[in-house]
């Protein structure tokens, strides 16, 4: 197995494993308030893996974002955010999410938890997910030698499958599919993974600020 594959898969796999662990905490008798710190551990662990593999992320070695593609990334990222908080009909989601509530026992926001959540969602998660979904899965569906596949050469089949899988990774699966199509389109059009990362980061950052402002914790 080429070294570039685990470099893109392991950070994502670790992130999903931590989610599974978080789901098991209540059964282990660990209170939700205590379990909230698991997010900080998860983000730190994933960030450490990304740092350890950093030399293998050749598509991120150069910040190849132009003014035009950067503006498009910000615009698409904000559009996906707006769609995300509106595409929430019952049939568009898997059950009901408790989300991430950073408030303490007296209802005051614990800003340590809140800022870690925003930083993780806006800075670490976009890099981890775009390396897995766009850099790896999207191109691997075109060819096992995914590193040789130019983003613009990706076909409709790979685009659709990747967007569908990206969607079902999220509780708001329909919004997730829309987001997956948007980020993939940016990547395929610009040829730059950084453009997709920026859009993803803008979406997650805007969502985090909106959640803190409105108290809609279930979106987290």
TrEMBL record:
GO molecular-function term, one example from the UniProt record: endopeptidase activity
Transmembrane domains' residue ranges: 12-31, 37-53, 65-85, 154-187, 193-213
Pfam families referenced in this protein's UniProt entry, alphabetically: Rce1-like
InterPro entries associated with the record: Prenyl_protease-related, Rce1/LyrA-like_dom
Presence of keyword Transport: no
Swiss-Prot/TrEMBL GO biological process terms: CAAX-box protein maturation; proteolysis
Keywords of the record: Hydrolase, Membrane, Protease, Transmembrane, Transmembrane helix
Domain CAAX prenyl protease 2/Lysostaphin resistance protein A-like: 114-205
Protein name: CAAX prenyl protease-related protein
